[in-house]
């Protein structure tokens, strides 16, 4: 009996020991999981939760680019990307089906509600959504199994997002709104080659050069845990980029672009350059060219909308040809392309000769129509000769023989020095990407023989960029200082603090004030009695120099024509250049930039309100002309766009509506600005209180009756007409095109027989 009890005791003891060992093992495991691996597993759990709910980068709004008067040129607005969670939607759909099976009468079909809302509000195709949410019947798995975030529409507006949220669409319905930013080039084509554009990682212009200042710092939206291990959504707000203030004057830039487009249409050249700057500071007021683009749609050539014949030409191009064409539009011709400058380089040579004392302003030359140099007869443009001519006459009449005679006195070594000192063949350092020097196309000193020196004296046998030669010309007339040209004056942070400011920079002094005064005053004769008479503006003392230069092989007879002009003559505040590079047809004495320069300078003089320097004949008539060609606009902020456009049209101005609504919140130019008749006024609008769904009125003027009615009805407008409907066209409409009015409103059209 005692033996049995002893065995029983031993068994119990062994069992207790086993339980104790098991308990200790479990405790050790718990300790290991909780203490040793606890932090790691807890972090993994948090990571899984963060993955489940999303760790999203919040992009900052890119800083604005504005003109010197703070007119917006490029801005960024907040938009939203819409994504769906297929896994979460399956869970919601499974719950709906279970409720239906259990007889729940008010079961909510979230999937159908989401598909309908996304289709109706932002236009996502229903079939696409059904496909994303589809389940394989054989396996029961989602087509996008494990996918928690799939984009369905990018960059919707804040208004569209709010409409979806009002319908209950959001994270509880497996829909995610990701904050994003969208770049908008407010003026479309204005200064596009200077501002540039952004497409993915590709950047041009100021957008590229000042990318760091404009970019800002991204924020972050994520899910973490608090001290109670509860999931908490947190957000680190982004820091928006700074505002880049340019030296561009929006109004002068418009003038320059209008001139560039006129010259492009008239002469079909390789390109056109039109620039305006301050010769004393290096500030660029305008930089335009013939081939340009719309910053909002840089891959769509502007010619597709302005030239019907271009459509077939574009479609026939290879991909490489299309790319080359677009590059011509995107690249800034003014800083990246070269040309032989011709006679616009003569003032630099005259200044060098005066500075070195090899001539005085009274030195004379005998032009017989040509000069024999190095065994070559090199002609003057006037082959009959200018006769006895002084320095002022050489500049005014653009005499090649006079230039060859004076540069022979100067010599190759000093010519070479001054050519370099004026910055020809070297980077100007302008704050734009893509600037080229073309120093590799310049003669070295040892290669400049008598013939080369003679032809270089009148701007042939070497190349320069438009910005190089214009900047060099500035040094001739501003007292002899070669300036660093620039297009950005300030960078301002989001608090309004100036974090970067550029001041005028003198690169070096090239000539004396005395020499500068002589050459600057001599060049008034170019416009009074010389080769630039067609650009003369009655009553104004303007200086300048014309230029004609053969390009490439002389046998090809390809030319470029140019004109540089400045005002006022005594202390120039503006200098402008018009270059028509390789026009399709060159006719000596006919193909000229002078009319374009005159129009440009007239526009600037009126805009700047410069008083005449001399009495103007028929003053009353001229005053009447001035009054009839410019008007002063008012400040329309806060007013109705519907009423304002009628006022603008009555003043002889055009307009463009930016935004959606009838209340004007901004305008360009601002009130008080004098503009030319026919100028475009930009009106920025928004919806006012009480405005419902509005639709932009299309332009139906010029359409026949049936087409006009169809276009208006398609947008939900009613149509009333004045005049017969048979074989008639629309000659006027009310409200005007571009306005936003209530859907269902009546548009009245006036009709006239064809």
Q: How would you sum up this structure in a few lines?
A:
Helix content is 36%, strand content 24%. The protein is α+β, with helices and mostly antiparallel strands and 754 residues long.
Question: Could you characterize what this model shows?
Answer:
It is a single chain. A hairpin with a 5-residue loop joins β18 and β19 (498-501). Strands 2, 3, 4, 5, 10, 18 and 19 form a seven-stranded mixed sheet that branches. Strands 12-11-23-22-21 form a five-stranded antiparallel sheet, with helices on both faces. Helix content is 36%, strand content 24%. By secondary structure, it is an alpha+beta fold. The chain starts with a helix and ends with a strand.
CATH homology superfamily of the largest domain: DD-peptidase/beta-lactamase superfamily
Number of helices, where a helix is a run of at least 4 consecutive DSSP H or I residues: 26
Low-pLDDT stretches are 46-53, 619-627
**Amino- and carboxy-terminal Cα gap:** 131 Å
CATH class type of the largest domain: Alpha Beta
What's the pLDDT, averaged over the residues? 88
* Count of individual beta strands: 33
Task: Describe the secondary-structure layout.
Layout: H1 2-36, H2 38-53, E1 56-58, E2 65-66, E3 72-84, H3 86-101, H4 110-122, H5 126-132, E4 150-156, H6 158-166, E5 175-185, H7 192-195, E6 198-199, E7 202-203, H8 205-209, H9 211-215, E8 219-225, E9 231-236, E10 243-246, H10 250-267, E11 271-277, E12 284-289, H11 303-306, H12 310-316, H13 319-330, H14 333-336, H15 346-356, E13 364-367, E14 370-373, E15 376-379, E16 387-390, H16 391-397, H17 400-410, H18 412-421, H19 450-457, H20 466-477, E17 481-483, E18 488-492, E19 498-501, E20 506-509, H21 513-522, H22 525-528, E21 543-550, E22 559-567, E23 574-581, H23 594-608, H24 619-629, E24 630-632, H25 641-650, E25 654-659, E26 663-668, E27 674-676, E28 680-686, E29 694-696, H26 705-714, E30 718-722, E31 728-734, E32 740-742, E33 746-753
Parallel strand pairs: 2-10, 25-28, 30-33
Antiparallel strand pairs: 1-8, 2-3, 3-4, 3-5, 6-7, 8-9, 10-18, 11-12, 11-23, 13-16, 14-15, 17-20, 18-19, 21-22, 22-23, 24-27, 26-28, 29-32, 31-33
Helix pairs in contact: 1-2, 10-23, 15-17, 17-19
